[in-house]
Amino acid sequence: MATELQALTQALRDFAQARDWEQFHSPKNLAAALSVEAAELLEHFQWLTEAQSRALPADQRAEIGTEIADVLLYLLQLADKLGIDPVEAAKHKMLANAVKYPAPPPA
After folding, report:
1. How far apart, in whole angstroms, are the C-alpha atoms of residue 69 and residue 67?
2. pLDDT value at residue 83
3. Which of 95, 90, 96 has the alpha carbon at shortest distance from 2?
4. Which InterPro entries does this UniProt record tie to the protein (predicted)?
5. N or C terminus: which one in the chain shows less Cβ crowding within 10 Å?
6. Residue by residue, what is the 3-state secondary structure of the chain?
7. Tens-digit pLDDT profile for residues 67-101
8. What is the pTM of this model?
9. Percent of residues, the chain, with pLDDT higher than 70
């Protein structure tokens, strides 16, 4: 796993341990929390046009950044609990996608 993600994962472990929250961090609970946070992220885009979604004001971008952080943090915790390296999983998935959806040859 990339060093920054490893440090962030360790910081999440330390944060939860200091608050005795580990008891609540089962894979099921973390997956549910991840889904809730992803829905909160989506809520910012609900009813926007494609153009509006690309031209967000700074304050809304900051709020979306907070939701993206929540999604990332729960995803890292879930991966940590299941012993999955998210960087390696993403690389594997990108390779699988390249096979499934090959780029067209240059014209």
Report:
1. 5
2. 97
3. 90
4. dCTP_Pyrophosphatase (IPR052555), DCTPP (IPR025984)
5. C
6. CCHHHHHHHHHHHHHHHHCCCHHHCCHHHHHHHHHHHHHHHHHCCCCCCHHHHHCCCHHHHHHHHHHHHHHHHHHHHHHHHHCCCHHHHHHHHHHHHHHHCCCCCCC
7. 999 999 999 999 999 999 999 999 999 999 999 99
8. 0.91
9. 98
